[in-house]
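Sharing in case it's useful to others searching the archive later.

Someone asked me privately for the predicted structure of Lipoprotein, so I'm posting the question and my answer publicly. Question first, with the sequence:
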Amino acid sequence: MSLAVGGGAARTALLIASIGVMVGACSGDSGTHQAGEGQNGTPAAKICDGSLDSSAVTSLQRLSGVETFKELTGTNEAGAPYKFSLRWAVEHLYDDYARRGACVVYKVGQNRPFVDIRFSASKSHPARGADPNDRTVEFPVGVFSQVGPDGADLFFRCTTAAPSSGESGEGADYVKAEMYAPKAAMRGNFQVRDRLVILNSVARAFAKAAGCAAQAQLPTRISEANRKTG
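And my answer, the predicted C-alpha cells:
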C-alpha cells in the first residue's frame, strides 16, 4: 500500500493519532511514552539516529519552520523502542508493523507526530509511470519513488534474508521506505521535493547499516521529478 497516495496512510494516521493521545496522557509522568531530549528539543542532525544529512536537515527545518525536534523514548506495546535506531530497523525489517523501526519526529511542544518513517522488506516494486493517480510526483530515485498528499514512498535494491522463524526464510530483493508526512502540515514552497530529500537521506543511512549501499545506489542529491501529474 502506498503512503504517498493514501492507501497505507490510513493505518499510519490511526497509529500516529493513538501515539499522540499517549504522549498527551503521559506528559506529566515518567511512563514509557515520553517525548525526550529536554525542553528545547534536539537538533535535526541528531534525530532519526543521526541519519539526516545537511540537505535533509535543511528540508526538515524548511517544512516545519523550526530547528529542533523531539522523538519518543521508551517502548510501545509490542516492545519496540520509540526512539529510532538504524540497527533495530535493519534487524526487524520483516517484523509486524508495530515492531519495525520507526523514526517518529515531533515538533517541540506538540503531541502529534510531524514525520513518521518506516522500513519493510519487499519482493517487488511498482513500475515507474504506471500509476494513473493524478496526485503523485515521481522521481528517478531508487527503483521507484513518489511523493503524494500524505507522504512519500521509496523502493530500493537491498537483498535481505528473512528470519527462519517467519516468511519461510525466503528473503526479498528490495526495501520499501515510507514516510507519512501530510502536505497539509508542511510549510514552504518545496514540499514535494523536501519530503523525498528527507526520506532518501534516512534510506541511504539504512542501506549503509544493512550493508547494501552499493546495491541501493541512492543519490546524495535529488534530481528533478520524472513527472508531475497534479
